[in-house]
Amino acid sequence: MAENLNLFTSTQDVIKEALNKLGYDEAMYELLKEPLRMLHVRIPVKMDDGTTQVFTAYRAQHNDAVGPTKGGVRFHPMVNEDEVKALSMWMTLKCGIVDLPYGGGKGGIICDPRQMSMRELERLSRGYVRAISQIVGPTKDIPAPDVFTNAQIMAWMMDEYSRMDEFNSPGFITGKPIVLGGSQGRDRATAEGVTIVIEEAAKKRGIDIKGARVVIQGFGNAGSFLAKFMSDLGAKVIGISDAHGALHDPNGLDIDYLLDRRDSFGTVTTLFENTITNQELLELDCDILVPAAIENQITAENAHNIKANIVVEAANGPTTSEATKILTDRGILLVPDVLASAGGVTVSYFEWVQNNQGYYWTAEEVREKLYKKMVDAFENVYTTATTRNINMRLAAYMVGVRRTAEASRFRGWV
Ligand SMILES: NC(=O)C1=CN([C@@H]2O[C@H](COP(=O)(O)OP(=O)(O)OC[C@H]3O[C@@H](n4cnc5c(N)ncnc54)[C@H](O)[C@@H]3O)[C@@H](O)[C@H]2O)C=CC1
Ligand SMILES: O=C(O)CCC(=O)C(=O)O
């Protein structure tokens, strides 16, 4: 039978299993098996050449029993409805795992920002906010950056919402530039969270980060900061990649040089002749493998060839359910996305708190608070997995879904 690559239905399967293990009945699964709201909008944008292009976009809100929904907006040509639904469900789990007072949300626009001018991107970003304005807001649903979106796009979106609202609303969105109410450390937060989780996982496996061989797929926000942090800790980053290919050097790559040469979309390999493919990268001999790009990269087809001792998912959904089973059976420690990549939303929450208070924290305060959240979350999921003898993904789903399930029950929804 063909492997299930549908992110939405495969997520439903694990949610069901987690709820069963927690003792909830079918009604709870019926509530949590898909988002409460899914808005599908079409956004007309005047292009620079005078033509009009109509873009399709989505905003999913999985569950708001705990609090407002929260999650990024992705600009990508392959975004689709099922993907956005799954991503919103993962946000519920992430917020549960790191204990933030949010439910999960996520948005996406089908577009290729690499082919658009800055002016076109600005019109599209503002159009998206107008199109979803009825269901979002600082106490309803708070967007943030994700694949191919950044602080500039957050700034345009915040400005558009503030104009509609008729007052400055920094708490409408997170991941903003610091001068517009962004938090210290949000730009590097996802990678910092991944680094903390890698350190914890390495301790469990008796691996010294100093000298450990690390391979990272993706050289964007998550992947590039992570490469820097790993090499600063003394690890040997022997492979990195982007959408066009991958670089490999068993003696360690010069990360500072690569950071200097990458473009704003995380592309760097096009400058080199000696490249390998992304598939070859994933199968390199290494200690720690970090998929930090896109979904469905480790599947039943290549899971048997993964050589890493630890796989840490910085990306959302890089490993299929079948591959999760294969890796776990092979004794590889797989740290799932909903735990490993929760540093981004954690510092987004800090940003929102600071916006609401109008009082701003130092980079050191942010780092300390993030560290505690990530270490506690890792320990909680790891202990759940080992005491129940289940894989880390199922354990993370159990930890992540419990609070939303309880809040829904107390509200009398189920
Ligand atoms: N930015 C954030 O705060 C967070 C990001 N994530 C996840 O991390 C992953 C990466 O996100 P960002 O670094 O923010 O995105 P980004 O847009 O900054 O970078 C994406 C990177 O992936 C590469 N890439 C794109 N398509 C690829 C393909 N087909 N094969 C190999 N590489 C490919 C790009 O070339 C680029 O290097 C995504 O799954 C995202 O959902 C998760 C939590 C928070
Ligand atoms: O920072 C946020 O609010 C959301 C980040 C996000 O979209 C994710 O963790 O996948």
UniProtKB/TrEMBL annotation:
Binding-site residues, substrate: K70, K94, S348
CDD domains cross-referenced by the UniProt entry: NAD_bind_1_Glu_DH (cd01076)
UniProt binding sites for NAD(+): T190, N221
Record: active site: K106 (proton donor)
UniProt name for this protein: Glutamate dehydrogenase
Family: Belongs to the Glu/Leu/Phe/Val dehydrogenases family.
Superkingdom, taxonomy of origin: Bacteria
Sequence ranges assigned to domain Glutamate/phenylalanine/leucine/valine/L-tryptophan dehydrogenase C-terminal in this UniProt record: 183-412
Any single biological process term in GO: L-glutamate catabolic process
Keywords: NAD, Nucleotide-binding, Oxidoreductase
SUPFAM superfamilies: Aminoacid dehydrogenase-like, N-terminal domain (SSF53223), NAD(P)-binding Rossmann-fold domains (SSF51735)
Pfam family, one: ELFV_dehydrog_N
One GO MF term attached to the UniProt entry: nucleotide binding
InterPro entries, A to Z: Aminoacid_DH-like_N_sf, Glu/Leu/Phe/Val/Trp_DH, Glu/Leu/Phe/Val/Trp_DH_C, Glu/Leu/Phe/Val/Trp_DH_dimer, Glu/Leu/Phe/Val_DH_AS, Glu_DH, NAD(P)-bd_dom_sf, NAD_bind_Glu_DH
